[in-house]
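Fig. S4 source data, part A: sequence.
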Amino acid sequence: MRLAHLSDLHFGATEPAVVAGLITDLATQRPDLVVVSGDLTMRARRGQFVAARELLDSLEAPWVCVPGNHDLPLDRPVTRLLRPLAGYRRHIDPDPEPLWSRDGVLVLGLSSPRRYLWKGGRIDRHQIARIGSAFAGTAGVRLKVLVLHHPVFVSRQRPDERPVRGAHEALLAAARAGVDVVLCGHDHVQAHADLSLPDGHILAVMAGTTTSHRTRADESQSYNLLDLGDDNRLTLSVRQWRAGAFTLLLRQPLFTN
């Protein structure tokens, strides 16, 4: 089972050559599922959502998305207050918190941006309770994956950023539920961490921006691949945009529960 982890596409601020290169590279890598951890658009405009959906529809694999803070109409406060995810629901997915399961892999998405806490985000008590219920009674599941936009850990490249509000409580609930991996984005850097918790440990994997020109920390556009082997070992690969194509930057085995 191979998962491709994209994030921070930012249609409205994309580099067309990178978008085309991504489609080509994903066709070559042949993931079984594409997971997008938010910020599909730059300003939540209709045309930006349409372009993002066209990309998703062009993929040969099924996909799962969650919204990011830029998928809220940040510059339209009345719309952001009354209908914060209207554009996302209309053009991307009516359900901003999808649950996907196949071939021993279970993926739960959570929507972390808020009307007022759009930049930092929040995971609330209802979402934390859903983590427990969604992953309960899942005998036969080999890999449990939680997806949200805002990070649950601080990356080495951006030490002044803060995790999403409610991150600690969400991670405790995820560990109790046996979650193996948390996928996130937002900071536009690629990073991963093994988070030790009272009920076990969780791998947290952050993706950089995949297609926009809004790169950080001297990192070019990138996306992640997660490969689950027959022995239940997980391998992380990072594919970075260099010299006009996505190429392998690193490949690293990861320890799961």
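Fig. S4 source data, part B ends here. The radius of gyration is 17 Å.
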